[in-house]
Amino acid sequence: MKVMGSAILFFEAIVIGLSIPISIVVYGVDKSTTLWVTFLLMVLCIVAIGGVRHDRRGAITTGIVVQLIIIGAGFAVRPMLFPGVLFLLIWALAIALSKKVDEAKAARETL
């Protein structure tokens, strides 16, 4: 979960940053609102990468909280909603896959 979770949050920060021009040009959201919201969400993703490095339960909780905050911000800056939902689904898949990997590692260690 450490590597996969960190990668997901890193790429999510990039995608959120790329939504700035879409928010301003296409949706006509106020420039200062868009810049502040996206900057804070990008910083949140980067800070959350540090939380993912510690333990599995903390990583899962940190990731879910970040995803829910981004989805909530999607109601203020509409282009954030789709990436928020998409990365929530990717996060759920990462949780399921990391559980299988952990089980496989545990089974291999018992041999």
From TrEMBL:
Write down the species: freshwater metagenome
Residues spanning the membrane: 7-29, 35-52, 59-75, 81-98
Name any one Pfam family assigned in the record: DUF4233
UniProtKB keywords? Membrane, Transmembrane, Transmembrane helix
**What name goes with this protein?**
Unannotated protein
